[in-house]
Amino acid sequence: MRRSSENKNSRRQIRHARVRARVSGTKEKPRLSVFRSLRNITVQLIDDTASKTLCQSGGKEVGKEKVENYSGKCAVAYLAGKKLAEKAKALGVTKAVFDRGGYQYHGRVAALAAGARDGGLEF
Question: Are 57 and 43 in contact (CB under 8 A)?
Fold first, then answer.
């Protein structure tokens, strides 16, 4: 079982490298990078020209306790995206480049993107 999960993660890293070859962020339009684990989801706004993280948010920060009518990880991902958009607005960032991190644009990744869009980010 361990071998198949290692293979799955290495294939994701190869896909992520392919995406990263095409996607780059600047201070005006940073890269919105997603990392998804089995329990949590984390998102960062990254300025690749300066190699700096501008702000970050995640499922631990939002927490399922704060979600009304908790209905799973997608609700937490949506709120994490919305929280990141609020932080980005405070920094004066309105546009971003979406980096899905080698994950399928489906489920928690899509919910996070929807939350960021509803929070005011454009990508």
Answer: yes
